[in-house]
Amino acid sequence: MNEYDIKFQKARETISDIDKEIAKLFEKRMKASEDVAEYKKLNGLPIEDLVREAQLIEANSQLVFDDEIRSYYINFQKNIMKLSKDYQRKLNDGMRVAFSGVKGAFAELAVQRIFPDATAVAYGEFKDAYKAVEKGECEIAVLPIENSYEGDVARVMDLTYFGSLFINGVYDMAIEQNLFASQNADDKTIKKVISHPQALGQCAEFIEQKGYETEKSVNTAVAAQLVAEKNDSSLGVICSIEAGNKYGLKLIDRKINKNSQNTTRFAVFSRVPRDICTDQNNFIVLFTVRDEAGSLGKAISVFGECGYNLKALKSRPSKDVIWNYYFFLEGEGHLTEESEKVMLDKLSQVCTNVRLVGKYSKEQHI
Fold this sequence. Notes:
The chain is an alpha/beta fold. The chain has helices spanning 3-43, 50-61, 67-91, 106-114, 126-134, 154-162, 197-202, 204-210, 220-230, 241-246, 295-305, 337-350, and strands at residues 96-100, 119-123, 140-147, 151-152, 166-174, 178-181, 192-195, 213-216, 235-239, 250-253, 263-270, 282-289, 309-317, 325-332, 351-360, 364-365. Strands 1, 2, 3, 4, 5, 11 and 16 form a seven-stranded mixed β-sheet that branches.
């Protein structure tokens, strides 16, 4: 056996030994993925996190000092991550996500984009979708909390205040409103348009220009279903392209909402609050203040004292006491276990009720 034969044989033995170690580490890594999958399911987080993956690849690739080999290692990492995500999807197969409306609603589109591997479950009202998670019928609910043109979704804000669920993610989705009608209709036969109040508001200028009457519906997709069933050429519906196509309607006019930058913010609700993590820089706090001069100012000042940026502050009637309000505050700044405790302790000194209902890394566009 010559020198090259010996080196070849030793190389094979070395590779075999390394492969055995890789197999053990691979199994160990996949077992850890089981815990990751369970955490994501409980906390309402999507399987895929491209930002986290990029951070890991960048950090881990620096551990390989050979420049030529590093590019192969990056591909190796990407393949492992893909296998891990595939395994997590298998473990979480059957995860049920509640939304309000019927098939084709904007909320269902949001579910499909955030949780492409989950089963979207339709409920008639926001409250029904929310309660489905509280009762354990679904693991997660995806509900709208604000529209860039029409403002807050008050009923969802009230559910957040009076309910028990937590917000573990906020996502922005561009909303395009379109006019559909039955196949025998055109823009001259339509006399009335049906849609959700927010959609009607977003398209108020178009509706006024056309001189249409309006009728409110609980959901844009529900309205599309109704117009399809009635098959009345005098009725139109304002809805998504997906909803109009789903119910076999004719597209009359596209992108009729006044604001081309129209977006809706969807919140992901789950039964379990998200734990403290390194990339968690946004939070939502609900609170009520004492009925005394300066109480709201004192509560707001707490966030500045703790080094947090106040992004939004909204008020809603508390309903339990007349002319009493609760406040919905969105803050920005890094939360740690200690800083969270300090903030909540300080708020408790000036507020009658305080609840941290949301923690998430950042808003994502879907």
